[in-house]
Amino acid sequence: MRSFVMRGALAALLLALAAASLGAKTPGKPKTPPNQPGPSPEERAITLAKEALADGNVQGARDYLAPVTSGRVPHEKEDDFAYLTAVLIEDGDAYQEALQNYLRDYPKGLHRREATLTLAKVRYVRGEYSESEHLLALFSPGVEKDFVGRQGLVLLGLAQLARGDAAGALAGLHQAGPDLEGSPQEEAYDFALAQSALHASRPADAGDALKRLLEGHPKGDYVPQALYALGTGLEAVGRTGDAAGVFRQVMVRYPASYEATRVRDRGIRITVEPDAPGPLALRGGFALQVGAFSRRDLAESLAKDLKTSGVEDVSVKQGPESPPVFRVRAGAFTTRDEAKAMGERLRRERGFSYTIVPR
User: Fold this and answer.
1) Closest to 55 measured CA to CA, from 64, 68, 66, 43
2) CA 215, 170, 349: angle at the middle one, nearest 5?
3) 144 or 346: which leads in pLDDT
4) What is the pLDDT, as a whole number, of residue 341?
5) For the segment 13-33, what is each residue's pLDDT rounded down to a tens digit?
6) How far apart are CA 209 and CA 215, in angstroms?
7) CATH fold for the domain made of 286-358
8) CA-based, 20 to 30 A from 187: which of 178, 229, 304, 317?
């Protein structure tokens, strides 16, 4: 959506420059017809909501849109209003239904690609990998040149992988390489490619993708995960000494990360371990609560997705409420900082919200 708004802003700028140029050639001529009405309050609110959402200010977008009623929306803004109304809904079930309604009611809508990608993410998070993959068939390798399309290709590979088709995911991601290499999604692409290669028993391919990620994005969001995955890949081909060296890099460079905790659980230590717990410290004092559902099957689907993402110690806890609430919890962390590092990773990569709770 950001690219849509930026293109709109650029077009507006060019039009303004053109109008100024015409005005300079004909002195005294008004730039707009004398009695032309300005935008209505509804038009202004929808425009401001679009801009706020493009800037990541979701609550601001909701505030701008709240006073607008469907009966007063100008015809030319109905598509924008329908999409914004759907994507800004807070309730999970209503959110999915609203996106489906938008796609049904606007088969050639301006925001069809964004709505399809968002709905595919919802299905993916719910563990509905085949349904997510079906939606993502809208995006085709070899032709995607914008932010939405490239995100769709990466998610398509992850959905295939989560469904159990690692070989298909690897082949599709390789085919999508020309669309993704050198793009802002390259880091996520390389990590998805590496994960698919590891699950497809292609450790050499995984190593190549991870090395490319680490060299091209040495301070990227995926570096702790990439280092840990590289270590496991080296172990898979019998290079245990090299693997141990990579694991130690995780502990030295990212001591508060979830991956550093996993390295310590392997029994690997460094000479002076930052933030090492004392001899009486209890490990695993904190966990992440990633979701709460009224239906056990939805909680189990989320738990399955977390396990596919490499999260350990995932469980579904039934609460004492009536009717019961099923809470999805993950991880065993020594400190709140370790728990927060993992929670932020899940929020960044998958859009999960989380709460740190005592284990």
Assistant:
1) 64
2) 60
3) 144
4) 81
5) 222 323 333 233 334 444 445
6) 10
7) Alpha-Beta Plaits (3.30.70)
8) 304
CB atoms within 10 A of CB 71: 6
CB count within 10 Å of CB 188 equals 23
Q: Which two tokens stand for residue 178?
A: 């020309």
- Domain range summary for the chain, segments of one domain joined by +: 1-8+40-110, 286-358
pTM of the model: 0.62
CA 179 to chain centre: 18
User: If you count them, how many residues does the chain have?
Assistant: 359
The answer to whether the CB of 84 falls within 8 A of the CB of 50 is yes
Amino acid at 277: P
Peptide bond into 323 cis (omega under 30): yes
pLDDT at residue 89 in the model: 87
The stretch 242-265 carries a mean pLDDT of 82
Alpha-carbon span 186 to 151, nearest angstrom = 10
**What local confidence, expressed as pLDDT, does residue 322 receive?**
65
How many Cβ atoms sit within 10 Å of the Cβ of residue 153? 26
87-142 confidence digits (pLDDT tens) = 888 777 788 899 999 999 999 999 999 999 999 988 888 888 999 999 999 999 88
- Start-end of H helices in the chain: 2-25, 41-54, 58-65, 78-87, 92-105, 112-125, 129-135, 147-163, 166-175, 177-180, 186-199, 203-216, 223-236, 240-253, 258-265, 296-308, 336-350
Task: Tell which residue, 206, 243, 223, 352, has the closest CA to residue 291.
Answer: 352
| Sign of the dihedral defined by the CA atoms of residues 192, 193, 199, 205, in that order | negative
Q: What is the dihedral of CA 207, 213, 216, 220, to 10 degrees?
A: -150
- For residue 141, CA distances in Å to 108, 188, 208, 335 come to 21, 16, 21, 42
Q: Quote the CA–CA distance of 119 and 325 in Å, as a whole number.
A: 24
The continuous run of DSSP H or E covering 331 comes out as strand 326-333
Match 């039934």 to its residue by tokens: 318
